[in-house]
Amino acid sequence: MSGAWVRTRSELRAQRRSRPHRCWDHLLAAALWPKYDVNLGTLLRTCDAVGACLVVPRRPWIDQALARGNTLRRPSCVHRIHDPMHWLATQRDRGTAVLGVELADNAVRLGDLPAARQRTVMVLGNEGEGIPDDALPLLDTIVEIPMMGTGLSLNVAVAGSLVLYRLSGLI
After folding, report:
1. Where in the chain are the domains?
2. 9 or 81: which carries more pLDDT confidence?
3. What residue stretches are annotated with the tRNA/rRNA methyltransferase SpoU type domain (predicted)?
C-alpha cells in the first residue's frame, strides 16, 4: 500500500510567489458584461491562482463587488475599461488571441483546447444572454464546456475558472 504525499502549508507557500504580481498581461479574463457581482470575486480568485488578469467594465458597483469578493487580502491585477466592444477590437487588432466561452456550432470542446501560447483574452458573457451577438465576430475561437446534465451552461465564474485553468496549462 502506497501512501499519498501531502505537502504542508509551509511547503506549499514556499512554492508560490512571495509577493503579488503587478500584471502578467499574457492571459486576461474579460468579464465584460457581468450580471452578478458574486461571480467577479470568484473569478478574481481564479485569475490570481493561474496568473491571469481580470478585465471588467467601469460600472459603479464593480469596485465594491471586487473588494467584497477579493478574499486574498492583497491587490490583484484588474483592468477597468470603458467600452468593451472597442477594447475587444483593439486587442484583436494588436494580434491578441480572443477566445469566447459560449455555446456555438463551431465551438472547440474544452478538453481539446490547447494552453495559450500567445497573449490571450478569454471573453465571458453573462448567465442570461451570454456574449452579445455583435461581439461574436471579434472572437477568434469559441470554446464550449460539455455538460451531461439538464442545464445549458455553468455560471460565469465556474465556466471562466475551468477555461482559465486549461489556457494556463495547469490542467
Report:
1. 22-168
2. 81
3. 35-165
